[in-house]
Amino acid sequence: MAGEPGEAAGPEERAPSPAPAPLLQQSRDFLDLFWGIAKPDQEARLAATAALGDALRSAPREAELQYALKRLIEGLGATREAARPGFSLALSQVLQALEDVPLQGVLEQIREKHDLQRKKLFRSAAFGNFFGVLALFQSGRLVKDPKALVACVQLLQSLAQHRNHLQDLPRRTLVDIVAEIPEPVFEEVLLGVLQADLAAAFSTPEQLQLLLVGLQKFPATTPTSGSFSLTCFSRLVEVLQAAAKSVKKEKVLPPVGLDLLRVALQEGAFELFWKGVVEKGLLEEHSGPGSYTAFRLLGSVLPLLSLEQLQVVLRGEVMRRYGDHVLSAQLPSRFKFAPEMEKYVDSFLEGCPDPEKQLAVLVAFSSLTNQGYPVVPSLWPVVRHLQPEALERYCKWLRDMFLRPDLGRCLEFSTSRQKKTASVFRFRKWLIQRLSSIVENAQVAKDEAFVMGIARFCFFHSFFETKKPSKDIPESEQQVSVPLDMSGLTRVCSASLLQTLNSLPLLGEAPKTAPGPPRGKANHGVTADGRLWAQHLVQYAALLLSHGKHVRPVRPFTAAGADEPQWVEVMVEILLSLLAQPSRLMRQVCRSVFARVCPHLNRRALQLILDVLDPDQEDDGAVVVTEEPGRKKGPDSSEDSGSEEDSEGSEEDSLDEGSDGEVDSGFRQRLMSVLQAGKALVNGQSSEEELDDDAMLALDARLASLFAEQKLRAQARRREKDQARKEKSLRCDFKIKVLDLVEGFLTKQPENPLVLELVEPLLAVIERSMSRDSAKQEQDFLRKTADIFTNQLCRAKQYCRSVADQAEELHVVLERLVEQAGRQADSAVALYHFSASLYLLRVLKGNMPKPPAPLGMWAPRPHPPPPSQGSSCLDLARVTRLYAEALTGFLSKRNSPFTAAMFVDLFTRHPVICQQLMPVVLPFITTGARPYHQAQACLLLLKALQMRELKQALEGPAWQELIGDSLRQTTESLRAVGKAVNKSAHLKMFKALELLVFLIKTAATAALAALQTLRQSDHLGTTGRLSDLTWQALKLLGVPRPKEEKVKVAENKGAPEEPGSRKRKKGFLPDTKKRSKRRLGEPAAPVDGEDPGNATQGTKRKRKRKKRARQQQPPLGPGVNGTGQGSGPPSGTPSPRASQTKDPEPKAVVNGDAQSPAPGSSGSKRKLRGGKRKNGLEAAPAATPLQKKARLPPPGTPSGPKARRKKLGPEGSAK
């Protein structure tokens, strides 16, 4: 069976086999191949098919072949869709490999197995017959067997009637068979069989395609009676409409459509077919499938047409309808055909080697416009396939259309709701964007000359105009037929072009002499000679400015003066003009371009930026800020919808003004005149006479005219106010964008000396903005300015280090900043001035003075000392006097803009100044203007004393003197304090007590360190009185005397063993007590290699040396009654452990000999039994001496009653 049981085969296949014996004789591997053919995985099916072919080809046996054919034929009608093509392919491979298998017999088996007469299994039978014929056709042997070929064609014709199951598969297979057979076979075998189908060609798309294939393959044999005559156009349109609807879901071109195009070209009736069938047929019904089929025919026919035919098709109705579709398909829910058309054009340009055809197609699509704007995008990737000649000619066409726009040559269309008008400005805008996109496209083959030509063209016509042609400027020789709208072109062209040039990769290879980029950075925005594209462009601008007789700038450059402006100044002018336009794109462009330009910035270019931010030049009108035309407005700002509301609002304002305030005197006089002329008012009072109807009507008319005139005046005033408000908003927005340039300069060039030129202008902006009430937009401007000034300038990690020549000027600016800070009424403004002074102080301190010039050629150059040795440009005495005056004013004046945080920042950042200002701060602890000032003096002194740098600078007596003066001033200040009745007095007490606590801790720490040093030294001697006095002083400072601990001195195991120290055996005398048996006059034997003559003297000398070493050994610390215990650790280090400082444990000695360890020691635990010896001596060991050791707590151990109550461990620490 084919496939899995019950799934891969139909009910008929599951019937029991009449001869099961051959199945049982097959191998398991061979049977598994049929299961693999039915698997859903295509790779598995192909592998099983190849394995089956190899198995039958290598060892062909009749039983296996018959079984394989049976299984494959059964699988043709399997219920699984993936199994049917697998068995069909496997059957075709088997028939192709084994040519001795007759096709007619296989076809008979297929018909017999899949009988079409069985109604219940008709669907499986239909698929079985179809895939069986397909297998015979794919085997390649069907052409060689005419009978089988005719039988297969007839079977396909019968299957074509059952479209419910097979759809158009039989007809398409029939077309494929006709396309593959040779002409003699078609004429002799199939022509008679297909005669009925060829006669009914206009009935279905499949039959028409069969006729078209026959006409293409066998034009002389296939019968036709004028396929493209006028009488058959309607029938062709019907067939194409049906074919378009049949592939509506697939969104592809029906195969019959492409065959119709080929036959029409073959018969020379293409134009007749295009106009009669496509333009007047498919497009007439305005249906979706028909229109999309026409568009697909247009895209598919491009490679088949000649140049003349391309021009006819690309300017016809199909192109107009395509443009209308692109315009209407911009809604989100509409189907968009533009991506598919782009693929057609891209494929054509890629495969077309003729530049003429390429240019014709690209120009035709670029000329399809709606109100002057082309429907294809300006950034169209298809240009990457253009030949160099076609690309050059296309760019020339773009430039010519920009200079002399001829909209009559464009294929203009408009929708039913649009007016038939064309805009030259829209067309020029698209042309400039297309030129810029060609430069931007990295896949377009171009060189530097080509890019520079486009850049010069766009730049010239954006900022300059021609007065008289010049040969030196080729762009001036090109005449402009329609005047340019420069305000729009400046916004549209230069932004995208500068952005493109700034990120343009290197074109070609750079010469070896050109400077390369830094390591790790790509070559972007530079030419082959290493210069920036922007620099080339600005040099071109300088060239244009130098030819004032021939060209003139549209907007005058402020940098132009007596001297010729440098290129960077012109570039800054261009960037400022671009920033004046309300566009986010231009803001990004200017930021990226300025990042490349800022290393070359000079003083005049920087001044151009600062002039925009200068508050004194707001009303000069140096920079014109324009509002973007066509910008979408909100419902509240719509002029058309809000005109009536404005009039009503102005009228209400006038009424409110008349009720709440004084009415305009001019309007009052005019009203009085009208009333008096109408006799409604006499001598300023109402007239008692009654007016007739005519007089009343005349008076009403005059009053209505008067009030209407007053209403218009009110509207005009309100309009002026709105315009002024808009201009102010645009100007503020422009300034915010200019701050991007300032921020970029500070970020990229923090070490540039020009950074110092930004200090005072930014302070002026901050001071001016904080001195007046501002709206939200101005608050944003102030916030951004303050952030840049504080974070990017004053607190920058890097600063200028090459201002040695400007030291005097910087000192003057520093003095001016501090003086301005002292004159401010607001502390917030004073803080910015003070921070600026600290920044300049940092710059002066970090710069080296200019070294003197050497006396001669060979004179050695002096090495500048480090900054810590006073080698900076800072005049310390001058700066100290400046800040001392400021500090005195802060602590003595009742209302001072300075704050304590300012001077704390000064002390922290510049400890040298802090050391000089300490004598200024100390007296104000008691002599401050108010308790608040005294509290601030305490705070400043506390912050200064806590600085490590100040303590290191004032080591020794100077530091002690400062601490003593501070103690005296603080205690005197506290004595003078009464009851804290107000907040200032409370603050003073609080700060004074904080300072006093710190001073006491500092003095106590110094005293404690001195006592510890004294205690651990040997100056106390061996007397206990000095040690007790030392501990009494330590107790006053909070360090208690540790408890004494009794420690038994144990035996020192590490001591060298002396002769005779071994434990003697019981009942025997020691060796030293034994009488030596030696001959008279013979010396005693030497001990342990000792000199025999000096044995006794050497032993005595060793004992004396050990005794002297024990006496000279320094003590561990003061013990009981001043006894020492060994050398102690240095001051400030933890005490060593007891095991590391314990003396060697003495051993019990009997008669001068070392014996076993004493009881309780670390020696042997064996009991020593006392007994009488022969010499009468007692062997009992001597008593172990006891020692009292005083343990000191390590530094940092808490002291006090609670700490003393803690039980101390063996190492002096709490358990």
The biggest sheet, with number of strands, parallel, antiparallel or mixed sense and barrel status, is: 3 strands, mixed
Regions with pLDDT < 50 over 5+ consecutive residues? 1-25, 517-521, 619-625, 628-661, 851-870, 1085-1093, 1115-1215
| Rg over alpha carbons | 55 Å
Spatial strand sequence of the major β-sheet? 2-1-3
Structural class: mainly alpha
Number of strands: 11
- Supply the number of helical segments: 48
Shape: extended
Description:
It is a single chain. With 1215 residues, the protein is an all-alpha fold. Among the domains are: 330-441, no CATH class; 447-508 and 524-554, no CATH class. Helices cover 56% and strands 3% of the residues. It is built from 48 helices and eleven strands. The strands form five sheets. It has a three-stranded mixed β-sheet. Helix 26 packs across helix 27 (567-579) and helix 27 runs antiparallel to helix 28. The longest helix is centred in the middle third of the chain and has 56 residues, at 693-748. The chain is extended. The two termini are 89 Å apart. Residues 1-22, 622-663, 1044-1215 are annotated as: Disordered. InterPro entries: ARM-type_fold, DNA_pol_V/MYBBP1A. Belongs to the MYBBP1A family.
Architecture blueprint of SSEs:
Elements: H1 21-25, H2 28-37, H3 42-58, H4 62-75, H5 83-97, H6 103-113, H7 122-138, H8 146-159, H9 163-166, H10 169-180, H11 183-190, H12 195-199, H13 205-217, H14 233-246, H15 255-267, H16 270-282, H17 288-301, H18 307-313, H19 317-328, H20 338-351, H21 355-366, E1 368-370, E2 373-374, H22 388-403, E3 411-413, H23 424-440, H24 448-463, E4 464-466, H25 486-502, H26 533-546, E5 551-553, H27 567-579, H28 584-597, H29 603-613, H30 639-660, H31 665-677, E6 681-682, E7 685-686, H32 693-748, H33 759-770, H34 776-794, H35 807-823, H36 827-846, H37 876-892, H38 900-909, H39 911-921, H40 924-927, H41 931-945, H42 948-953, H43 957-975, H44 983-1016, H45 1024-1036, E8 1044-1048, H46 1095-1112, H47 1138-1141, E9 1149-1150, E10 1153-1154, E11 1186-1190, H48 1201-1204
Parallel strand pairs: 1-3
Antiparallel strand pairs: 1-2, 4-5, 6-7, 8-11, 9-10
Helix pairs in contact: 2-3, 3-5, 4-5, 4-6, 5-7, 6-7, 7-8, 8-10, 10-13, 13-15, 14-16, 14-17, 17-19, 17-20, 21-22, 22-23, 23-24, 23-25, 24-25, 24-26, 25-28, 26-27, 27-28, 27-29, 28-32, 30-32, 31-32, 32-34, 33-34, 33-36, 34-36, 35-36, 35-37, 37-39, 38-39, 38-41, 39-41, 41-44, 43-44, 44-45
